Amino acid sequence: MKTLFEHGTLATLMAANLDGTITLEELLKHGSQGLGTFVGLDGEVVILDGEVYQAVSSGKVNKITDMKQKLPFASVHFPETQYRIQLDEGNFEIVNKELPKKYELQNVFAAINLKGEFPFIHTRIAAKQVKPYPSLLEVAQDQAEFTYENIKGTIVGYYAPEIFNSVTAGGWHLHFISDDRQVAGHILEFRGENLTGNLEVFDTFEQHFPVEDQEFRRGTVNLETLKADIAASEGNDD
Ligand SMILES: [Zn+2]
């Protein structure tokens, strides 16, 4: 059994439930690789080899060692080599169109890890919000964006089938971290070279809910605008 563990849902983030509802300590029991965000959408989290990094909106990357820190949303798993990937060139066009076709991902969850050189990468980092929290869409309209050239690093992320778009982001959701751990973020666009890594397909999706959180329990999601809002705030170029 290969399990992808997710805490919180993208829909409730969209509905501005940004309080932390799982500790890193608890989250890391379910995986050593993944992505997420901290309380109030404080940055973009990358978890790699059990180490936790937070890119904050100034562009700085913090290594997080306080396991009491909480997250409103995160996805993690324990990586195992399944399908080795080698791409002379990589970008969203290839990742969005070729990989789902080649590995028949349309109805499954998958993870990817790609390490290599990046002649170009365009990232965003959400800025920390305070209560009353705005919606993720409002945050996304005012996000910090960065571009880097000729940087070495690793992409980690997940693929979700379109039918799950709103539980998490449909399609690929990718974060980046540089080899020197000085640069990280949520990927909007990239061009990679000599990428090697691993693709994994999950047979189990474990959705964990913050049932103790009153705002989560009472929150309402606007289904009318949800998909368009997700596309506007999480979309990548392809
Ligand atoms: Zn992200």
Automatic annotation (TrEMBL):
<comment type="pathway">
    <text>Polyol metabolism; (R,R)-butane-2,3-diol biosynthesis; (R,R)-butane-2,3-diol from pyruvate: step 2/3.</text>
</comment>
<keyword id="KW-0005">Acetoin biosynthesis</keyword>
<protein>
    <recommendedName>
        <fullName>Alpha-acetolactate decarboxylase</fullName>
        <ecNumber>4.1.1.5</ecNumber>
    </recommendedName>
</protein>
<dbReference type="Pfam" id="PF03306">
    <property type="entry name" value="AAL_decarboxy"/>
</dbReference>
<comment type="similarity">
    <text>Belongs to the alpha-acetolactate decarboxylase family.</text>
</comment>
<dbReference type="InterPro" id="IPR005128">
    <property type="entry name" value="Acetolactate_a_deCO2ase"/>
</dbReference>
<keyword id="KW-0210">Decarboxylase</keyword>
<dbReference type="GO" id="GO:0047605">
    <property type="term" value="F:acetolactate decarboxylase activity"/>
</dbReference>
<keyword id="KW-0456">Lyase</keyword>
<dbReference type="GO" id="GO:0045151">
    <property type="term" value="P:acetoin biosynthetic process"/>
</dbReference>
